[in-house]
Amino acid sequence: MARLVLIIDDEEDIRQVAALSLETVAGWDVAVASNGAQGIQCALAQRPDAILLDVMMPDMDGPTTFRELQRLFHDNPIPVLLLTAKVQGPDQRRFADLGVTAILAKPFDPLTLADQIRMVLGWSD
Amino acid sequence: MGAEEQFKQQLRKLWLSALPMHLERIRALESALNSLDNLSAAQQEEARSAAHNLAGVLGTFGLQEGTEIARLFEEVFSSNPVQAPAGLQTQLDELRRLIETHHL
Asked: Is residue B2 part of a domain?
């Protein structure tokens, strides 16, 4: 069965490019959500293998969404990869302190996004 | 057609479908830039958000230089009060040119 990756990002074009990349380049299944609340509902319903989570979103931002995911999936956590333009200095430390699996730089290269995810999650497929 | 070329073709379609949205974001930046002396909070937030979106997406379509310029505008419209360095109109013109002439 193909892996399922959930993309949570408020920007439609980012969701589309990331989904195209993961479906076409890696052959994974992709679910998308345009905000944190919708992403959490989607995670509960579909239990993805990994979540790609944007940091800056209105209403419920990435860190808040992540903490809620941590609470809900406390016994069996889903790897969460934060997607952010702020990958240096204090921001990176702040995000790393949250306990996310990895921090990926935005903008990303759609041709290598799947490889980045494979590498940090140790996936061989 | 190879898988990579197929992928690039789909990416090109996404770029073309998103192009009007990118240009709309440019217009939001231009409008804010033209109103710097009397910028409302809503207009500033719209410009900041437009710049943030452009910064996040342009590099993904291979326009890294566009991302860098958009980051500059994000920084400008995140400052309060707005600190606008000289030459922003030139930067904005360049950003528009990059977007309008970009071919994947």
From this structure: no
